[in-house]
From TrEMBL:
Residues 156-158 are annotated as: G5. This is GTPase Era. Belongs to the TRAFAC class TrmE-Era-EngA-EngB-Septin-like GTPase superfamily. Era GTPase family. Residues 63-66 are annotated as: G3. The lineage of its organism: Bacteria, Thermotogati, Thermotogota, Thermotogae, Petrotogales. GTP binds at residues 16-23, 63-67, 125-128. The gene is era. Residues 16-23 are annotated as: G1. Residues 8-177 form the Era-type G domain. PROSITE patterns: G_ERA, KH_TYPE_2. An essential GTPase that binds both GDP and GTP, with rapid nucleotide exchange. Plays a role in 16S rRNA processing and 30S ribosomal subunit biogenesis and possibly also in cell cycle regulation and energy metabolism.
Amino acid sequence: MENKENYKSGFISMAGKPNVGKSTLINSLVHQKIVITSDKPQTTRNSINVILTEEDAQMVFVDTPGIHKPLHKLGKYMVNIAIGALRGVDLILFVLDPTDGIRNSDRRVAKIVAESNIPTLLIINKRDKIKNMQIYNREITEIKESLPNLKGYLETSAVTGYNLAELKAMVKEQLPQGPQYYPEDVISDKPSRFIVSELIREKIFQLTREEIPHSTGVVVEDFKVRDNGMLYIRADIYIEKDSQKPIIIGKKGMMIKKIGQLARKDIEELFEKKAYVELFVKVRKNWRENENLIRNTMDFKQEGQ
Ligand SMILES: Nc1nc2c(ncn2[C@@H]2O[C@H](COP(=O)(O)OP(=O)(O)OP(=O)(O)O)[C@@H](O)[C@H]2O)c(=O)[nH]1
Ligand SMILES: [Mg+2]
């Protein structure tokens, strides 16, 4: 940790129900794709620090799973992680997506945010999809009034970049003076193995439908740089039932091939190295209810938790 004069720093946790654009906002703010996103709810399963270092400040954005009513043990883990990530941070970005209304699921998150006692910015994301904001006035005012620590309000689009410079300025303004927590070349607190497993999982979320994405977990078993400078990655894809195997493998292996190809492209871009990705599908019956298997997919092993 380096101490600089007049330097600002802090931890900024995202809060919101699933699919509101928390992860997309982080990637857009740091101008790099670090955390995974998809059009399906419950994409993010763990908390991940994404670090943006500038001349005058270091912002540590904490991506979190969407807060929802969990249906299985994995869901409970996710929600506990999301709520836990609000403890002790300097600022919360509470994100709403008004595209299908502001609902009780948002009000439940508002209650948790209000109880955290942490300075909060209320973000109305996906502004590009809304023609008339007026119709949400009543709900937004009600949410604002429920937040005793509200420090600011902004409408954004993580996709078009609308108001993101303003958002960054508002975040900086709220941060206290502090040390540079991470060296300037560090962009995430997670090991490479975790990031790789996430990229593979993202492709499954993007390419498959119905219960398949949510029933899968990815564990990177091998991550090596070979003598020729190439990355070698071997990963297991967990599924819950035998009947899901033909779907994830696809006709003539086309689906698993596509997952591997798209993941490899992202991995090569991120690590700036050629990569070889080998994927295996494993049936782990009801793994989402099994503590040890959940932990494997969350990469808790390396964190010693
Ligand atoms: N049009 C539009 N789409 C957006 C915007 N922000 C995010 N999206 C889309 O919304 C979907 C969900 O985005 P994510 O960033 O994965 O949402 P999340 O809140 O992290 O979701 P969970 O991880 O499931 O909690 C993706 O398809 C994004 O491309 C936005 O500002 N405008
Ligand atoms: Mg997310």
